[in-house]
Every structure is written in structure tokens, then in C-alpha cells.
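How a chain folds remains the central question behind the approach discussed here. The record that follows shows the chain in one-letter code together with its fold in C-alpha cell form:
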Amino acid sequence: MAEVLLNHDLAGQVRALSAGTRPQPKVADGAIEALKQAGLPTDGLHPKDIDAVMNESIDLVVTVCDNAREACPIFPRPIPSIHLPFHDPHGEPLESFLAVRDDIRTRLVAAVREKLGLQAAAA
């Protein structure tokens, strides 16, 4: 959800890529539904291993769960990072995914905007 929310809410300012140290076989149905209910695109979403993004041009690493923070790999060059944990709603009802979606939108988008010195979107 973080990848989609960052790419939507900071469109034209960032290109977010999501990857995990131990990704699930597929994106959770609850995550897809939570994004769809917010009118956000879900086509082509799939879990990626960190190796899939290791050679990308990365300006900021964001860890959103404590185990990822501790297992985060060493990147080829120093990269600024932030850690902002979120509840993992895996296996929970849709309401949990909706709450996490809204929490990501509120806290993570603002934290990335601040860390990268991005301007808020015009109203």
C-alpha cells in the first residue's frame, strides 16, 4: 500500500518502489481492496524481493516494519533512511487494512515529504 500511496500522493516528485526481505507470494486481498476503495490503481501490483530493486537509483530507504528494519540489506552506497513502523494487517478483516492505509497516507507521506524536502501539493 505504501508504494501506491506514495506514488499517488507525491506524483511527479518521487518514484516509490516497494520490496521486502521476505515478501508474501501475493499482495493481500485486503490491501488491494483498501486501495481500490480509495480510487487508487492496483494493476500489476506484486510482491518484490529487495534484490529486485537493489540496482535502482534510490534516494531514501523507508522501513515500515521492525523485522525489515533489522534485516535491511547493505546498499552499494550510503542511502538516507527512515523507519516508520505500521501495523501489519495480514489475515485481518478489511477494516484493519483500511485503517493501515489511512495511517500510511497520514504519517508516511508526510515523513517522506519532509525527509526529501518536497513541497506540499497545492490545494
In short: The mean pLDDT is 88. Residues 82 and 111 are 8 Å apart (CA to CA). Residues 94-116 form the longest helix (23 residues). The radius of gyration is 14 Å.
